[in-house]
Amino acid sequence: MNLRSLQWKEILLLPAAGWTLTLVIVHQSIIASSSYFLTRLIEAFQSGRDFSPFLLAYLAAMLLPYIPGCASLLTLQLWINQAHRRFSNRLSESTYGFIEKHRDNSLRETIESVYSRNSFIALQDYLTFIYQFVSLILNSTLSMIVLSLLLPGNLIVGYTISILGATTLILLLRRRVYLRSTQAENTFISYSEALSQIWDNSVLGNRYNFDLWKQHRDRLASQYYSRSNRLQLLKQSGNLTLAFLSLIPTVYLILSAIYRHGVESALIAAIIVNLTRVFHILNSLSGLVYQILDFTAMNARVQVLLNAERRFMEPTALPEAPQGQVLVNDSPVHQYESVVKVIRNSASGRFTIRGANGSGKSTLLHVLKKALSSEAILVPSHHGKLQWRTTSANQSTGQRAVSQLLEISSHPEVRYLLLDEWDANLDAANTHAVDEILAQFSENRVVIEIRH
User: Fold this and answer.
1) Mean pLDDT lowest for which of 18-27, 104-113, 158-167, 266-275?
2) Which residue, among 101, 92, 90, has the nearest Cα to 370 in the 3D structure?
3) Taking 70 as the threshold, does the pLDDT of residue 243 lie above it?
4) Among 66-80, 144-158, 290-304, where is mean pLDDT lowest?
5) Which residue segments constitute the domains of the chain, with CATH numbers given?
6) Are strands 446-450 and 326-328 parallel, antiparallel or unpaired?
7) How many CB atoms lie within 10 A of CB 66?
8) Which of residues 72 and 148 earns the better pLDDT score?
């Protein structure tokens, strides 16, 4: 099974999905039967026959739908939660260990925005849409089947004409809605990333940084609001057109049937009794077609989520050699692979990497992490989001560094410790404390460090 199919399977083919759709079918079937029982009730009443069985059945058809209706909303929430759990677990597992992607800032922004801010809302909206979409289809289809048993056949013709006209409009609008939805969703990701930068740019009070951030935020805001407005305008224009396509043919046929010469009074009564239901169905048809248009937008949002994982499958290779002069324990590095071999053959020791900015020091750590895999822990220079067991928010930078290294030292399976400028922003006391820990660590394991 390819990646795309597997991704959709883990969203749609879940236990709660089956229960939700089953309950929706039961719910809509009971609702549709109410028109049948109401019509038979009126016919029995007019003819003087016993109408009590139809009355009881009609009352039951009005009351019982609440049970499967409420239950389906509960299972829908279970479906949403299961889908999000599967998605979040899958994305974290799929991206694990792709060290060569770590410095791709564009991909980082997309993944963090998708994972932390967009995924639950997008999946919730998408699955709720499917729930409403299936409900509308069943409501319209089952109701028309019931009414076709009760009303003149030409009303079905009108309904069919409405469906064909609506389908034609869908085919004309679908591509444009999809493109505009994708543009709006991608712009929203960039906009939300800009919004997430409020803390440093605003709270620090640096006017220069604040003004630059504001300009960047406002530019992305204008792009997103403009694209979302154009998307909504396109969808609502289509919805208005669909309303006319849905209503006009059937309205004409209903009026023709009522005013036709010699029509039976029982038929007129049946048409009038079910007129509200017919227009409700036609309104549902208009809503259904609008939902189909909206499905394109919903699908585009979910595709943005799934494409984030697919981008990790695109091949990316780490460089084989440094861009400038890089020294390891004062020896020049010509090929990264030679350093990997030296480190692999070392049971203990301390290796210090030095070089100018942009020469390839951090890249060497990434190459080593890729080669050493789970035997190594890489701590980048900016690692505030890494999860630790012992770190407290009340600790200073130095205290956090000490507690993190002690935590790493307590895990014997970690044979290699890769540190990127660990001594940056540390005072003399904490630098000495960290240095002592690293010295002890390197007595029976390996430390590879970039020094500030």
Assistant:
1) 266-275
2) 101
3) no
4) 144-158
5) 3-312 (1.20.1560.10), 326-450 (3.40.50)
6) unpaired
7) 11
8) 72
CA 225 from chain centre, in angstroms, equals: 20
Residue 141: CA atoms inside 13 Å, Cβ hemisphere, count?
Answer: 10
d(CA 194, CA 216): 7
CA–CA–CA angle 306, 311, 312 (5° rounding): 105
User: Tokens 């035997």 identify what position?
Assistant: 375
Residue in this structure with the two tokens 């390891």, named with its chain if needed: 328
Tokens of 73: 């909303």
Q: Which helix (H) or strand (E) holds 115?
A: none
What band does 21 get if pLDDT is binned at 50, 70 and 90? very high
**Where is pLDDT greater, at 205 or 335?**
335
Confidence at residue 218, expressed as pLDDT on a 0 to 100 scale: 93
pLDDT value, residue 247: 66
Contact 372, 331 (CB under 8 A): no
- What is the residue whose two structure tokens read 């690692």? 383
Residue pair 82/16 in contact (Cβ under 8 Å)? The answer is yes
Q: What CA–CA distance (Å, rounded) separates 391 from 385?
A: 11
419 forms bridges with which residues in the sheet? Answer: 379, 449
Instruction: Identify any residues that bridge with 379 across adjacent strands, giving them in sequence order.
Output: 419
Cβ-contact 68, 27 below 8 angstroms: yes
| Residues 298/131, Cβ–Cβ less than 8 Å | no
Main-chain phi, psi angles of 345, to 5 degrees: -85, 5
Strand-pairing partners, residue 405, are none
